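COMPLEX REQUEST
Ligand: iron/sulfur cluster
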Amino acid sequence: MQDTYHFHEIFSILRQTMNNIQMPLVSRKKWDNIQKTPFTVLISCLLSLRTKEKITEQASLRLLKEYDTPEKIIQLSESTIQHYIYPVGFYKTKAKRIKDIAQTLIIDHGGKVPNDFQELLSLKGVGRKTANIVMVYGFHNAGYLPIDTHCHRIPNRLGWIRTKTPEETEKKLLSILPKQYHQDFNHLFVQFGQTICTPISPHCSICPLTNHCQRIAVGTHR
Ligand code: SF4
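STATUS: Structure written out below.
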């Protein structure tokens, strides 16, 4: 199949360039001190919403090092969960959500995270991005693309798609991006968006993708 969008080259460049940049915790293959399972990926992803990566990592470690299953989580009171996860954003709401989700998993799913996108979405507090993260990084399924602000912005700048919302981006990208790139898409674009193709004033002068980028709607750049 003809690679109109130069996916092969772009992904090769990004893999090389982002090699030295730390990946977000949920996308790392191996975790230190926490067992990586669909459940721990789900909880860590919930902790990461509106929270800096470093804080997420520390909170995940404090909570999940010991309490890494729904059965263990429900032993904890909400205030103990709050204590473990503070200072993540909305830690009180998240503590409640984490306990509710653990309870629901035990009652409705035999204590297991469902390997099913719609069932994940039915868990209270789980949106499309989190469900996609669990499908990709918890279960290693192709056919799912977690879209955050970087994953929405950069494909539009490159000229791959013209979309207005992350939902539209997810749908469009799923129709053009071959499955072999699904597993790496989210973390490569997040790393790239945090370091080079930044939201405001992207670093186009040092960007390794300049030859492949249409720079759609890019104003001030460096
Ligand atoms: S050339 Fe500029 S806008 Fe295009 S991907 Fe690189 S940093 Fe982003």
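REMARKS: Residues 25-138 form a domain with the Endonuclease III; domain 1 fold (CATH 1.10.340.30). The chain has two domains: 7-21+143-212, 25-138.
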